[in-house]
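Box S2. Input/output pair 1.
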Amino acid sequence: MSTNRIKKFRPFTIVCVLAALFAVTPLVSGQVSTTQAPARTSSIQSIPNGSKLKFKGVVIGQEADTFTIRDRNRTDYHVAINDRTSIKTHGGFLRSGKKYPASELLRGLIVEVEGKGDQQGRLQAEKIRFNESDMRAAITSDTRVTPVEENQQRMAGQMDELYAVAAEARREVTAVNERVTSLDDYDVQETVSVTFRTNSAVLSPEAKAQLDSLALKANEARGYVIEVAGHTDSTGSETKNFRLSRQRADAVVQYLAVQHKIPQRRFVSPMGFGKTESVAENTTAAGRQQNRRVEVKMLFNRGLTQSTQTKPAP
């Protein structure tokens, strides 16, 4: 064959060789992926022996009684489960939660883990808690993803990242649900105790000054209520003391509402406890003075507080 004919067919030969290589490449990569999984980019965090740890993360792997759980900082932990590990859902009847076996901890499930480190650097789990809604989501994810994994093992290294991304999205939804649930929960932020003279429900100048300070904080706050409880010493009859303690509580509410324009909806129904909740002995004048009091508590709504403090995960 002449040199010109060789030059003429050379481009065609090169194209055929490249096509054959591209056809063989998927078969080779498929065989390699079944024998060697892609390298993990995250590292396993070792836990010192005896150290207590509590964190929240997503289950990304399971081997016998050991699970791999990744927290929101992309740090992985080996968590060991034994017969004493308590595995339950949050809440439920009487807040006892529903028990689950370890085999139900599916990948993609967001869990809260509490335990101690062992000699192998694992966390020996004492408590594992999760939401029922996250369990349903994990079951749905596992049902859809497992057949795909069985047919495409070469993509196993990417599945963990997909689970983590899905868990991040569910975590945001869970955070919103928790804030809504916490709308009925309150935390005490400010407490003021004002005292009264014997058989009197009139606020003293010192008591008004204390309430003025509380009102300044209330006018700048959101998501709060004010709880007012009146008390007396042991002087007088029980019926009189209950009436007097309620009058003292009403006097505090009236002062805050009229003088500082705090809306009535901010007040929990004032209560008079009479002499039933003494904080000091009634055998001395100083003790009786401490008992002639009204306790004012400023309670902040936990759900609204979380909504202003919680920042989105990166």
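Box S3. Input/output pair 2.
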Amino acid sequence: MRKISAVFVFFCAFIVSLAVSSTLLLAKTTSSLTPTPSPIEQPNPSPKPDLTQKIKETLAPLEGLLAKQKLGPVWPSNPIKYAIRLAVASGVPVNTVVLLLLLPVVATVIAASRHLIGLRGFGIFLPATLSVVFVATGPIIGIGLFLLIVFISTIIRVLLRKLKIKLQYLPRMAFLLWAVSFSVLGILFLTPVIRYPGLTNVSIFPVLFLALLAEDFTRAQLGKSVKTAINLTTETLILALVSFVFLTLKQIQEFALLNPEALLLATLIVDYLLGKYVGLRLMEFWRFRKLVNT
């Protein structure tokens, strides 16, 4: 019992020291600012537009593509194109339409990476969600927050197991979300010291997505070795980064918006063919190369 109390006291003291140090650093940085204006003031860089932002820089190019495209009759090849224009005219953001059209493509890319290459990752939902988070935050900040949340959730799970503290599911989730939220908040407290401009543009929704995924990562790690967990995490990051490339390529965005029928039909056919494939994967060819060559 004394050992458990000592560990908890150390953990709480660490959290309090993190908050106090962050506050002192912030106060020191604020007090060191001189009131005299600098001779040359540089404006803060505006956040780079992306598919998750409903701003003019994102919507105007996509709406311009819709206005320039000439359509034929509705049936049989243009029903979705007309539906998109009616939805946009009714107020639906065009970037949301493009993102929804590209999500099946991302899922197909992840499935193909699993069945043809051999990259496992944490299923199909987590890499797809991470790719959207990377679009909203940028890959550097997204990977940093991802690794931080995975690390904190793993530490909390190991700590509860070592201390033999058994909690019901919802209280355990609340405890885990508390630790993750405070850790991310501690990173935001350190922005005056880190001075990375992308941190100030992080919205609540990517952080919330990552926090809610923490329990999925810990559940996927249960019963697996540390090496397996690290491999799965690395493969998840690779799949998310590849999906991020597909979501941010301008050519793919334009093709999805101007040819939604062809995109959805091709995605459906590829998914069907992937489901019928039962051969070896590329990584298995390398793994069993000695047997294949004999």
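Caption for Box S3: Residues 2-31 form the longest helix (30 residues). Residues 48-293 form one domain.
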